[in-house]
From TrEMBL:
The chain crosses the membrane at residues 12-36, 56-78, 87-105, 111-130. Keywords: Membrane, Transmembrane, Transmembrane helix. This is Integral membrane protein. The keyword Transmembrane helix applies. It comes from Nocardia wallacei.
Length: 136
């Protein structure tokens, strides 16, 4: 049986998850637009290490691999989709994987990598937390 306090905690977790996933999706989209449009120039050294040496390809990958799953997570949580916990765990894990592999690909470390790694862990952890409320 779900108590009022349990329901409040689940509601707070859903709100936090929607906020963090939406925030992450927004900045992934902004980064993708910057990379595709040329407003974000990572420099010649980093560009040479990107797939096909293209910031546009990197921007499209950022939008598809990070932005879209995070937007889907935020939308699923807002819609109270019963799969939102699973979507959150997957999109959070993908983000953690992305920022873990990224320094090896681009050959540089940036302070945003651990920040977004923590955001990915937060999304995954909130998804795991909400999994406990499934079916209640």
């Amino acid at each position: 049986m779900t108590t009022f306090a349990d329901a409040r905690r689940a509601r707070a977790a859903r709100a936090a998850l929607a906020g963090v996933a939406g925030f992450t999706a927004f900045w992934a989209a902004a980064g993708a637009v910057g990379l595709i449009g040329g407003g974000a120039d990572p420099g010649a050294t980093v560009t040479a290490r990107l797939p096909w040496h293209s910031t546009a390809v990197a921007g499209v990958l950022l939008a598809l691999v990070i932005g879209a799953p995070m937007a889907l997570t935020a939308a699923a949580v807002v819609r109270r989709d019963h799969r939102s916990d699973t979507v959150a765990m997957l999109s959070g894990a993908v983000l953690v994987g992305w920022v873990t592999v990224q320094p090896a690909i681009i050959g540089q470390f940036h302070w945003l990598q651990p920040v977004f790694g923590l955001l990915g862990l937060t999304v995954a952890a909130l998804g795991l937390y909400l999994r406990g409320y499934r079916g209640r």
